[in-house]
Design goal:
about 140 residues; five-stranded antiparallel beta sheet; mainly beta; 8 strands; single chain
């Protein structure tokens, strides 16, 4: 499943991303700034903010750079996809790992605990893949 079919806030987030992009462009020295998509986490843990527990830079050039954010109930992965792909990129979501596939580049992300594949999904938009995973122990 590629998109969240019940995502009523998608238009709001797209408009918010455009506003942030306009703000960044109008800042001094903005010629080096880049907006590569967006990830907005609207749900919060009971103890406060979600924490970033891993930002990986690929060891070899065949891997895709990604960032992982975890809450009590979910895991969010954001990956910057390579330009000029021949095929549509996808996320192969398994209970213990996620594989991001973009043409011949595959990046495997091992998960600390099992996730529910049925309630997990991914979305590709403007060169960024957002993956939302529902943790199994919190259903």
């Amino acid at each position: 499943m590629q998109n969240n079919p019940g995502g009523p806030y998608d238009d709001v987030f797209q408009n918010l991303a455009r506003i942030v992009e306009d703000i960044v462009k109008s800042m001094p020295e903005s010629q080096h700034a880049r907006i590569i998509g967006y990830t907005i986490i609207t749900r919060q843990t009971a103890d406060g903010d979600p924490e970033v527990f891993r930002i990986d830079t690929p060891d070899d050039e065949g891997e895709i750079p990604y960032e992982v954010v975890e809450t009590d109930n979910e895991i969010f992965i954001t990956a910057e996809l390579p330009c000029n792909l021949k095929n549509a990129p996808f996320a192969d979501i398994e209970p213990q790992c996620v594989r991001i596939v973009a043409d011949d580049r595959i990046t495997t992300i091992m998960l600390e605990g099992p996730i529910d594949r049925v309630h997990s999904y991914y979305r590709v938009h403007r060169g960024v893949m957002d993956i939302s995973l529902k943790k199994m122990n919190n259903l």
